[in-house]
Amino acid sequence: MGESIKLFYNVDGHDFVSCGQASEDVKRTLKNIGFPPEVIRRVAIAMYEGEVNMVIHAAGGVAEVEITEDAVRVALKDSGKGIADIEQAMAEGFSTAGEDIRELGFGAGMGLPNMKKYSDEMKIESTVGVGTNVYLTFYI
Amino acid sequence: MKVSEIAEVLNAQILCSADRAEATDIKSACGSDMMSDVLAYVKDQGLLLTGLVNPQVVRTAEMMDIVCVAFVRGKRPDRGVVDLAASKGIILMSTPERLYTACGKLYKAGLGAGS
Ligand SMILES: Nc1ncnc2c1ncn2[C@@H]1O[C@H](COP(=O)(O)OP(=O)(O)O)[C@@H](O)[C@H]1O
Ligand SMILES: [Mg+2]
Questions:
Q1: Mean pLDDT rounded to a whole number for chain B
Q2: Which residue's CA is minimally distant from atom 12 of ligand 1?
Q3: Domain count, chain B
Q4: Quick one: A36 exposed, middle or buried, by C-beta within 10 A (0-12, 13-18, 19+)?
Q5: CB within 8 Å of A28: residues ≥ 6 apart
Q6: Is a pLDDT exceeding 80 seen at residue B115?
Q7: Which domain holds residue B91?
Q8: A8 Cα: distance to centroid of ligand 2 (angstroms)
Q9: CA–CA separation, A14 and A26 (whole Å)
Q10: Minimal CB count within 10 Å: which of A42, A91, A122, B52?
Protein backbone atom coordinates (compact mmCIF):
# COMPACT_ATOMS: atom_id res chain seq x y z
CA MET A 1 0.00 0.00 0.00
CA GLY A 2 2.10 2.87 -1.32
CA GLU A 3 -0.35 5.73 -1.59
CA SER A 4 -2.81 6.69 1.08
CA ILE A 5 -6.54 6.00 0.75
CA LYS A 6 -8.92 8.88 1.33
CA LEU A 7 -12.58 8.39 2.14
CA PHE A 8 -15.32 10.97 2.53
CA TYR A 9 -18.80 10.63 4.02
CA ASN A 10 -21.81 12.84 4.58
CA VAL A 11 -23.40 12.05 7.92
CA ASP A 12 -27.11 12.87 7.72
CA GLY A 13 -28.16 14.60 10.92
CA HIS A 14 -31.83 13.82 10.54
CA ASP A 15 -31.43 10.10 10.04
CA PHE A 16 -30.89 8.07 13.17
CA VAL A 17 -31.43 4.92 11.12
CA SER A 18 -28.46 5.34 8.77
CA CYS A 19 -26.20 6.74 11.50
CA GLY A 20 -23.18 4.45 11.73
CA GLN A 21 -22.94 3.65 8.03
CA ALA A 22 -19.72 5.64 7.56
CA SER A 23 -18.03 3.79 10.44
CA GLU A 24 -19.21 0.46 9.07
CA ASP A 25 -17.78 1.30 5.66
CA VAL A 26 -14.42 2.25 7.18
CA LYS A 27 -14.44 -0.96 9.20
CA ARG A 28 -15.09 -2.98 6.04
CA THR A 29 -12.38 -1.12 4.12
CA LEU A 30 -9.76 -1.69 6.83
CA LYS A 31 -10.71 -5.36 6.99
CA ASN A 32 -10.23 -5.72 3.24
CA ILE A 33 -6.83 -4.03 3.43
CA GLY A 34 -5.85 -6.43 6.18
CA PHE A 35 -5.40 -4.08 9.14
CA PRO A 36 -4.98 -5.78 12.54
CA PRO A 37 -8.43 -6.57 14.08
CA GLU A 38 -7.49 -4.71 17.27
CA VAL A 39 -6.92 -1.47 15.34
CA ILE A 40 -10.06 -1.93 13.23
CA ARG A 41 -12.12 -2.33 16.38
CA ARG A 42 -10.71 0.83 17.96
CA VAL A 43 -11.34 2.86 14.79
CA ALA A 44 -14.88 1.52 14.38
CA ILE A 45 -15.95 2.24 17.95
CA ALA A 46 -14.41 5.71 18.21
CA MET A 47 -15.63 6.84 14.81
CA TYR A 48 -19.11 5.47 15.50
CA GLU A 49 -19.37 7.46 18.74
CA GLY A 50 -18.29 10.52 16.73
CA GLU A 51 -20.94 9.85 14.13
CA VAL A 52 -23.59 9.47 16.82
CA ASN A 53 -22.52 12.79 18.36
CA MET A 54 -22.85 14.59 15.03
CA VAL A 55 -26.38 13.23 14.68
CA ILE A 56 -27.67 13.75 18.22
CA HIS A 57 -25.86 16.99 19.08
CA ALA A 58 -25.12 18.74 15.79
CA ALA A 59 -27.61 17.96 12.97
CA GLY A 60 -25.03 16.02 10.99
CA GLY A 61 -21.72 16.77 9.32
CA VAL A 62 -18.94 15.14 7.35
CA ALA A 63 -16.37 12.46 8.08
CA GLU A 64 -12.98 12.45 6.34
CA VAL A 65 -10.80 9.40 6.68
CA GLU A 66 -7.21 8.90 5.58
CA ILE A 67 -5.65 5.47 5.68
CA THR A 68 -1.88 5.10 5.35
CA GLU A 69 0.43 2.14 5.88
CA ASP A 70 0.79 2.71 9.60
CA ALA A 71 -2.11 4.95 10.66
CA VAL A 72 -5.77 5.84 10.28
CA ARG A 73 -6.78 9.49 10.61
CA VAL A 74 -10.43 10.43 11.09
CA ALA A 75 -11.81 13.98 11.03
CA LEU A 76 -15.44 14.56 12.07
CA LYS A 77 -16.63 18.03 11.16
CA ASP A 78 -19.98 19.65 11.84
CA SER A 79 -21.59 23.06 11.81
CA GLY A 80 -23.65 22.43 14.91
CA LYS A 81 -24.07 24.34 18.12
CA GLY A 82 -20.50 23.76 19.30
CA ILE A 83 -19.15 22.84 22.72
CA ALA A 84 -18.74 25.64 25.28
CA ASP A 85 -16.51 23.77 27.74
CA ILE A 86 -14.50 20.99 26.12
CA GLU A 87 -12.93 19.79 29.36
CA GLN A 88 -16.38 19.37 30.91
CA ALA A 89 -17.68 17.59 27.79
CA MET A 90 -14.75 15.14 28.00
CA ALA A 91 -15.63 14.10 31.56
CA GLU A 92 -17.14 10.62 31.91
CA GLY A 93 -20.87 10.88 32.48
CA PHE A 94 -21.28 14.49 31.35
CA SER A 95 -24.10 14.83 28.85
CA THR A 96 -26.55 17.47 27.69
CA ALA A 97 -28.67 14.83 25.93
CA GLY A 98 -32.34 14.66 26.86
CA GLU A 99 -34.50 11.74 27.89
CA ASP A 100 -35.46 11.09 24.24
CA ILE A 101 -31.81 10.34 23.39
CA ARG A 102 -31.29 8.21 26.50
CA GLU A 103 -34.28 6.09 25.51
CA LEU A 104 -32.38 5.26 22.33
CA GLY A 105 -29.38 3.96 24.31
CA PHE A 106 -27.12 7.01 24.03
CA GLY A 107 -26.60 10.13 26.12
CA ALA A 108 -24.69 8.42 28.94
CA GLY A 109 -21.85 10.90 28.57
CA MET A 110 -19.44 8.16 27.51
CA GLY A 111 -18.99 9.06 23.84
CA LEU A 112 -16.08 11.49 24.00
CA PRO A 113 -14.34 9.46 26.75
CA ASN A 114 -14.74 6.35 24.58
CA MET A 115 -13.24 8.18 21.60
CA LYS A 116 -10.29 9.23 23.78
CA LYS A 117 -9.89 5.71 25.16
CA TYR A 118 -9.86 3.96 21.79
CA SER A 119 -7.76 6.47 19.80
CA ASP A 120 -4.04 7.18 20.13
CA GLU A 121 -4.46 10.92 19.61
CA MET A 122 -7.56 13.09 19.88
CA LYS A 123 -8.02 16.78 19.27
CA ILE A 124 -11.22 18.83 19.53
CA GLU A 125 -11.74 22.26 18.02
CA SER A 126 -15.07 23.87 18.78
CA THR A 127 -16.69 27.27 18.64
CA VAL A 128 -20.13 27.87 20.08
CA GLY A 129 -22.59 28.66 17.30
CA VAL A 130 -20.08 27.71 14.58
CA GLY A 131 -19.37 24.01 14.93
CA THR A 132 -17.07 21.24 16.09
CA ASN A 133 -14.15 19.37 14.54
CA VAL A 134 -12.87 16.21 16.16
CA TYR A 135 -9.60 14.66 14.95
CA LEU A 136 -8.75 11.07 15.82
CA THR A 137 -5.51 9.25 15.01
CA PHE A 138 -4.92 5.53 15.33
CA TYR A 139 -1.52 3.89 14.90
CA ILE A 140 -0.86 0.25 14.09
CA MET B 1 -23.20 -22.40 23.86
CA LYS B 2 -24.87 -22.69 20.47
CA VAL B 3 -27.31 -19.91 19.52
CA SER B 4 -29.98 -22.56 19.02
CA GLU B 5 -29.47 -23.69 22.63
CA ILE B 6 -29.62 -20.07 23.83
CA ALA B 7 -32.95 -19.64 22.06
CA GLU B 8 -34.19 -22.77 23.79
CA VAL B 9 -33.11 -21.63 27.28
CA LEU B 10 -34.77 -18.24 26.69
CA ASN B 11 -37.85 -19.70 25.04
CA ALA B 12 -37.06 -17.22 22.31
CA GLN B 13 -38.15 -16.88 18.74
CA ILE B 14 -35.41 -16.31 16.18
CA LEU B 15 -36.25 -13.35 13.92
CA CYS B 16 -33.48 -13.53 11.32
CA SER B 17 -30.28 -15.31 10.23
CA ALA B 18 -31.79 -18.50 11.70
CA ASP B 19 -29.67 -20.61 9.34
CA ARG B 20 -26.61 -19.68 11.43
CA ALA B 21 -28.10 -20.59 14.82
CA GLU B 22 -26.75 -24.13 14.82
CA ALA B 23 -23.21 -23.30 13.72
CA THR B 24 -22.70 -20.13 15.79
CA ASP B 25 -21.08 -20.74 19.16
CA ILE B 26 -21.30 -18.05 21.86
CA LYS B 27 -18.65 -18.01 24.60
CA SER B 28 -19.90 -15.12 26.73
CA ALA B 29 -22.68 -12.54 26.87
CA CYS B 30 -23.59 -9.08 28.14
CA GLY B 31 -26.83 -7.28 28.97
CA SER B 32 -27.41 -3.52 28.66
CA ASP B 33 -29.80 -0.81 27.51
CA MET B 34 -26.97 1.71 27.16
CA MET B 35 -25.16 1.34 23.85
CA SER B 36 -22.27 3.58 24.98
CA ASP B 37 -21.65 1.19 27.87
CA VAL B 38 -21.58 -1.70 25.43
CA LEU B 39 -19.10 0.26 23.30
CA ALA B 40 -16.97 1.07 26.36
CA TYR B 41 -16.83 -2.23 28.21
CA VAL B 42 -17.64 -5.14 25.93
CA LYS B 43 -14.61 -7.15 24.85
CA ASP B 44 -15.46 -10.33 23.02
CA GLN B 45 -18.96 -11.15 24.14
CA GLY B 46 -20.85 -12.65 21.23
CA LEU B 47 -24.35 -12.08 22.58
CA LEU B 48 -26.07 -8.87 23.66
CA LEU B 49 -29.32 -8.95 25.65
CA THR B 50 -31.23 -5.67 25.57
CA GLY B 51 -34.63 -4.06 25.91
CA LEU B 52 -33.92 -1.61 23.06
CA VAL B 53 -35.09 -2.35 19.52
CA ASN B 54 -33.81 0.61 17.48
CA PRO B 55 -31.41 0.31 14.51
CA GLN B 56 -28.44 1.55 16.55
CA VAL B 57 -28.55 -1.68 18.56
CA VAL B 58 -27.66 -3.52 15.34
CA ARG B 59 -25.02 -0.90 14.44
CA THR B 60 -23.48 -1.28 17.88
CA ALA B 61 -23.48 -5.07 17.51
CA GLU B 62 -21.74 -4.69 14.15
CA MET B 63 -19.01 -2.42 15.59
CA MET B 64 -18.38 -4.83 18.48
CA ASP B 65 -18.51 -8.03 16.39
CA ILE B 66 -21.51 -9.16 18.43
CA VAL B 67 -23.10 -11.94 16.38
CA CYS B 68 -26.41 -12.33 18.21
CA VAL B 69 -28.87 -9.93 19.87
CA ALA B 70 -31.70 -11.08 22.14
CA PHE B 71 -34.54 -8.62 22.77
CA VAL B 72 -36.15 -9.07 26.18
CA ARG B 73 -39.71 -8.58 27.45
CA GLY B 74 -41.14 -9.87 24.17
CA LYS B 75 -39.97 -6.82 22.26
CA ARG B 76 -39.64 -6.96 18.51
CA PRO B 77 -37.89 -4.49 16.24
CA ASP B 78 -39.59 -3.28 13.10
CA ARG B 79 -38.95 -4.74 9.67
CA GLY B 80 -36.12 -2.33 8.78
CA VAL B 81 -34.07 -3.35 11.81
CA VAL B 82 -34.55 -7.05 11.08
CA ASP B 83 -33.49 -6.53 7.46
CA LEU B 84 -30.43 -4.55 8.58
CA ALA B 85 -29.34 -7.37 10.90
CA ALA B 86 -30.06 -10.01 8.25
CA SER B 87 -27.85 -8.15 5.76
CA LYS B 88 -24.97 -8.41 8.24
CA GLY B 89 -25.65 -12.02 9.19
CA ILE B 90 -26.45 -10.98 12.77
CA ILE B 91 -28.93 -13.28 14.49
CA LEU B 92 -31.87 -11.58 16.24
CA MET B 93 -34.20 -13.25 18.71
CA SER B 94 -37.06 -12.20 20.94
CA THR B 95 -37.64 -13.66 24.42
CA PRO B 96 -40.61 -13.06 26.73
CA GLU B 97 -38.21 -12.98 29.74
CA ARG B 98 -37.12 -9.78 31.44
CA LEU B 99 -33.46 -8.73 31.18
CA TYR B 100 -32.50 -9.93 34.67
CA THR B 101 -34.24 -13.28 34.29
CA ALA B 102 -32.90 -13.88 30.79
CA CYS B 103 -29.31 -13.19 31.91
CA GLY B 104 -29.82 -15.35 35.00
CA LYS B 105 -31.13 -18.31 33.03
CA LEU B 106 -28.21 -18.21 30.60
CA TYR B 107 -25.68 -17.79 33.40
CA LYS B 108 -27.15 -20.77 35.20
CA ALA B 109 -27.00 -22.77 31.98
CA GLY B 110 -23.25 -22.12 31.85
CA LEU B 111 -22.90 -19.00 29.71
CA GLY B 112 -20.64 -16.60 31.61
CA ALA B 113 -19.73 -12.94 31.24
CA GLY B 114 -16.26 -13.61 29.85
CA SER B 115 -13.37 -11.22 30.38
N1 LIG C 1 -20.44 17.33 17.78
C2 LIG C 1 -20.90 17.93 18.89
N3 LIG C 1 -21.55 19.13 18.80
C4 LIG C 1 -22.01 19.75 19.89
N5 LIG C 1 -21.91 19.26 21.14
C6 LIG C 1 -21.28 18.07 21.29
C7 LIG C 1 -20.75 17.33 20.19
N8 LIG C 1 -20.18 16.22 20.66
C9 LIG C 1 -20.35 16.23 21.98
N10 LIG C 1 -21.00 17.34 22.38
C11 LIG C 1 -21.31 17.74 23.78
O12 LIG C 1 -20.50 17.02 24.67
C13 LIG C 1 -21.31 16.24 25.57
C14 LIG C 1 -20.62 14.93 25.88
O15 LIG C 1 -20.53 14.12 24.71
P16 LIG C 1 -20.43 12.53 24.85
O17 LIG C 1 -19.30 12.22 25.77
O18 LIG C 1 -20.40 11.94 23.50
O19 LIG C 1 -21.76 12.15 25.62
P20 LIG C 1 -23.28 12.04 25.10
O21 LIG C 1 -23.25 12.03 23.61
O22 LIG C 1 -23.74 10.74 25.67
O23 LIG C 1 -24.00 13.20 25.65
C24 LIG C 1 -22.64 16.10 24.85
O25 LIG C 1 -23.70 15.86 25.73
C26 LIG C 1 -22.76 17.44 24.15
O27 LIG C 1 -23.19 18.44 25.06
MG1 LIG D 1 -22.00 10.88 22.46
A1: 96
A2: A89
A3: 1
A4: exposed
A5: none
A6: no
A7: 3-108
A8: 21
A9: 21
A10: A91
Global pTM reads 0.95
- B48 found inside a domain: yes
- Report the distance separating Cα A53 and Cα A61, nearest Å: 10
Which residues are CB-contacts of A30 (< 8 A; sequence separation ≥ 6)? A39, A40, A43, A67, A72
Say which CATH number the domain at B82 has. Answer: 3.40.1390.20
Residue B47, class by beta-carbon neighbours within 10 Å (0-12 exposed, 13-18 middle, 19+ buried)? buried
Judge whether B115 lies within some domain. Answer: no
Evaluate whether B7 touches B93 at the Cβ level (below 8 Å): yes
At position B7, the amino acid (one-letter code) is A
Residue B113 lies in a domain: no
Query: What are the pocket residues of ligand 1 if the criterion is a CB atom closer than 6 Å to any ligand atom?
Result: A 53-54, 57-58, 78, 80-83, 89, 94-97, 106-113, 132; B 36
Q: Which of residues 26-45 of B touch A (CB under 8 A)?
A: 33-37, 39-40
How many Å lie between the alpha carbon of A115 and the closest alpha carbon of chain B? 9
Domains and CATH numbers, chain A: 5-139 (3.30.565.10)
